[in-house]
Every structure is written in structure tokens, then in C-alpha cells.
Amino acid sequence: MHSIEIRQTGPTSGRLKNSITLELISSERLVAVTIWESGESEVITARIGSADDPSVSLAQLRTVNDVAELLTRVAMTMSEDEV
Questions:
Q1: pTM across the whole model
Q2: 44-80: buried (b, 16+ CB within 10 Å) or exposed (e) per residue?
């Protein structure tokens, strides 16, 4: 099992669009998840050491279930490197 480092930025306050960002970093992959209080979200996924452009996914989170589904997808992405 690979170790995963998690970094949190925020939550911000006093901005036009307050947000929180979680970065999940393994030896193989970086995933950055930003969620704004408006419900907007952005997930950036990149392979470490790859010249490929990172993938970017945008979504509107309307419910707590939407947040849970987003985090489940992120966890699945991070576990893709497990063998």
C-alpha cells in the first residue's frame, strides 16, 4: 500500500468565493480537490513525473451526497495505483 500525504488549504473567509482545497499526493499521483461554498468544485489529477497535461473535472455539488460521491471518486483515483 502506498502512503498518501494530505495537505489542506483553507477554508478561506472574507473572499468573494470562499473555498477549501485538499491535495492528495502519493508517489504516483497528485489530486487537488477545491470546493467553494457555492457548491462549485474542481478536481485536478496529474501523474507525477508525467509530461501529460493534468485532467480537470468541474462539477456543481448540490447535496452532501454529491460531496460524498466526489470524495469517493477521488479515493478510487488514488487507489488505482495499488497493485
A1: 0.87
A2: ebeeeeeeeeeeeeeeebeeeeeeeebeebbeebbee
